[in-house]
């Protein structure tokens, strides 16, 4: 269990203090997030691409997510830990959704689960999981698991009809019992209008100011290769630093510069003589 609680997150919203959330997928990245003092850590299904190198976020199983989430749990002491319910693990029934969310709590020790979507079937899943005593973080706007049905990975809520539908979904997710809501790739002006109707913390990604922000760690650290979505800001060039580090090691090995005396173990003269015999 983390020291950051749902009530602390609610307090941050009330005080107008922005909530900081970042993804992590294993012990090492979870330690980075926790040492940096973020409020929330998300083990996102973005792991499918970021960690496993697959093409789509839907291409990850519950068992795989649980290995990553359990590893992140071991690294997080302070931040509130959220596990992303992957595509296919909640769609069939409320019972399936509760069973999956329960595994995330029991096997990975997450503090809450995140569930995409705000249409009627999804609201039913949120009510069921919350009813089982597991906090739920909603996710509306661009929902990558169903992006094909949304017309691709593109911003949502840009037309008057779409903005109204998005606002209805956000409010319905809150009414269904969600403890917080992620809003992805939605115009800032639409979120500004929605915010006064939201009592729960709203965490934006490409959605303007909201009550907090979430980014993929590998994107903000400059580890992810290629063109970033416009909502990403890169704060470090860690990918380049890692390549330079491994290059320097390789060069040292190839030139005989590494290892040196300080990297060697000492032996008694007798050991050397015995090895010689
Ligand atoms: O999987 C993920 O990383 C996410 C965040 C970007 C919100 O869902
Ligand atoms: Na996700």
TrEMBL record:
Coiled-coil ranges (or none): none
Reactions catalysed: (6R)-5,10-methylene-5,6,7,8-tetrahydrofolate + 3-methyl-2-oxobutanoate + H2O = 2-dehydropantoate + (6S)-5,6,7,8-tetrahydrofolate
Active-site residues, record numbering mapped to chain: 184
Family: Belongs to the PanB family.
Pathway(s) this gene product operates in, as recorded in its UniProt entry: Cofactor biosynthesis; (R)-pantothenate biosynthesis; (R)-pantoate from 3-methyl-2-oxobutanoate: step 1/2
EC class name: transferase
Cofactor binding mode and count: Binds 1 Mg(2+) ion per subunit.
An annotated GO BP: pantothenate biosynthetic process
Cofactor dependency: Mg(2+)
Keywords, comma-separated and alphabetical: Cytoplasm, Magnesium, Metal-binding, Methyltransferase, Pantothenate biosynthesis, Transferase
Protein's UniProt keywords contain Hydrolase: no
Binding partners and assembly: Homodecamer; pentamer of dimers.
Gene (UniProt): panB
Keyword field contains Repeat: no
Subcellular location: Cytoplasm
Gene3D superfamilies documented for this protein: Phosphoenolpyruvate-binding domains (3.20.20.60)
SUPFAM superfamilies, sorted: Phosphoenolpyruvate/pyruvate domain
Alphabetical list of NCBIfam families matching this protein: panB (TIGR00222), PRK00311.1 (NF001452)
Source species of the chain: Microbacterium mangrovi
Residues engaged in binding Mg(2+): 45, 84, 116
Binding site for 3-methyl-2-oxobutanoate: 45-46, 84, 114
GO MF terms, alphabetically ordered: 3-methyl-2-oxobutanoate hydroxymethyltransferase activity; magnesium ion binding; methyltransferase activity
Protein name listed in UniProt: 3-methyl-2-oxobutanoate hydroxymethyltransferase
Major location category of this protein: cytoplasm
Any one annotated GO CC term: cytoplasm
